[in-house]
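Archive entry. Fields below.
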Amino acid sequence: MTTELSVSLWRGAQNGRYETYRVPQRQSQTVLDVVTFVQRHIDPTLSYRFACRVGVCGSCAMTVNGKPRWTCRTHVAKVASGGKLEIGPLANLPVIKDLATDMQPFFEKWQQAEGAFAPTKTRHDAIAQIRPDTPARKAADAAIECINCGVCYAACDTVRWNADYLGPAALTRAWTLVNDERDGGNIARLQAIAGAGGCHACHSHQSCQELCPQALNPTAAIAGLKRRTAAAYLKGEIKI
Amino acid sequence: MNVRLYLWQRATAAVMAPLVVVHIAVIFYATRHGMSAADILSRTRGSIAWAAFYGLFVFAVSIHASIGVRNVLSEWTPLNERRVDAFAVFFGLALAVLGLRAVAAVVLT
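PREDICTED_STRUCTURE:
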């Protein structure tokens, strides 16, 4: 086992460069541990983002040896190639500094995809009784564990090619709500995702599904949205 | 790609799938039986069935391919949307004209 890792970290903003650091290798070490070691012991000006360190908050995603990953739950032993790590900011998002990207475009697309719940009842109504075993509820539950980390967005070729594309995470959120029987915003939602940057732009490359740290399947969700929007368009419920 | 283009592309793909199978079967039949150009033309000239078959094929291909080319241009080139749309329409019309010309050449007497 190598006792030292050679770690290249992206430094600077969009036009930065990789700089290499030597970091001691330890057992059960995560990629986030490595980045934190550099910031604590070598260069305190290194900027990166994390919060929970246990795979819940979705803050610490970075590009690790070419692939987007949640760094707090990614073991160095799993991804280091010959004792080398190259860690950069997430792709497809503007770099603020070093390993921190500006997530604003990512979250704006959630809003554009009508990713907010549209209630049909008020707090004065009785709590809705939802059966967990209906096909619609199962489809909604399938993607409910998204932690908004942006890994799928960074992995997506279509996002890279088409700046207007809403991306896997926003569309998966839309699919969850489309299947939520308590939600009343489906026509507006299907309308929002039926245009040029909507679900039909997806090429089904499935990088989102392959790299999602929560093992969700955005490609399947987007395929469902393609069918649902096509049906709504043919019925005249939405217009282009 | 929006939902309307998506539906046109999927619908034309569905139309083309059986047409491609018949088209390939015809090619195999013609080559296996050693048919000459004159033999083939004697069967296709004046045939409304072959005119309809390949006319539909050309119609479906023109729509399907122009939508596909539009996507490629839109994603992989810096051309703006108006130019991409204009090229896709031109490409579709060119395919339609060339294809229908070829159909006319084998079915018109």
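CURATOR_NOTE: Chain A touches chain B at residues 158, 161-162, 194-196, 198, 200-201, 226, 229-230, 233-234, 238, 240 (CB under 8 Å).
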